[in-house]
Amino acid sequence: MRHAVLSAVIIWLCVTGSATSQVADLRSTTEFRVCADPANVPMSVKDGSGFENRLAKLFGQLMDKPVTYSWFPSGMGFITKTLRAGTCDVVMGYAQGDELVQNTNHYYTSVYGIVTRKDGDLASVDQLTDPALKDHPIGVVAGTPPATIMARAGLAKDMKGADLFVDRRVKDPVGELLEGVRDGTLHAAVLWGPLVGPRIKDDPALQFTPLLKETSGPKMFYRITMGVRPDEQEWKRELNSLIRRHQDEINKILHEAGVPLVDDYGKELLQ
């Protein structure tokens, strides 16, 4: 019996040791390999124009490694088919707290907000509980945190939903909502800042007002990290060090792109 137990322990150690070795061996030592959606405008785009593409380029330069991509539509199966499959080593722009990946330290914090016409009746609205929103058609992506607050505020009948998980190579729900506000078929749209800010930063007609005053329901601000495989502690520490030492450069890219940045508590907009 003793020999059987000892043999089982040895086998377990060999198996787990081998698995750990295999996980460690997944990371490339010659390339900065990024997992990304090819059409997640304005974050990641296959032509390299997204702000997350520019951040990836910065990190590649800091490591003196070329940036390569494993492209796959975001949504169900994204992490399994990319990061977990070993075809890439880091997911840019990943919300803190998701259990599918190991999060690095966050490199920015952003916020949901309301998009309105600058000359519209709702231009001064900065809270989802504002009675002025009632009886106005308002776009929102289904399943996102503000949709919950809007429903509780009695706006369910006014909400015009767009799908959360779509193949953005063929559909652009955020773009459609923005066009609705532009042409007046929608009077407002409640959207995630990084998806909207870069699209309308030079728009003469539209404005983005961050939702910094909500007091109940899901939070409106989220810390954004990079995602790595759960066992890759050394890789996470390397990225954390780069984030800490190059935060000013990161912020510059985000500001230039038009991403609305808030403090870590979602209370103040950073200029």
TrEMBL record:
Keywords: Signal. InterPro entries: Quinoprotein_dehydrogenase, Solute-binding_3/MltF_N. It comes from the Bacteria. The keyword Signal applies. Residues 31-257 form the Solute-binding protein family 3/N-terminal domain. The keyword Membrane does not apply. Residues 1-21 form the signal peptide. This is Quinoprotein dehydrogenase-associated putative ABC transporter substrate-binding protein. It comes from Paracoccus alkanivorans.
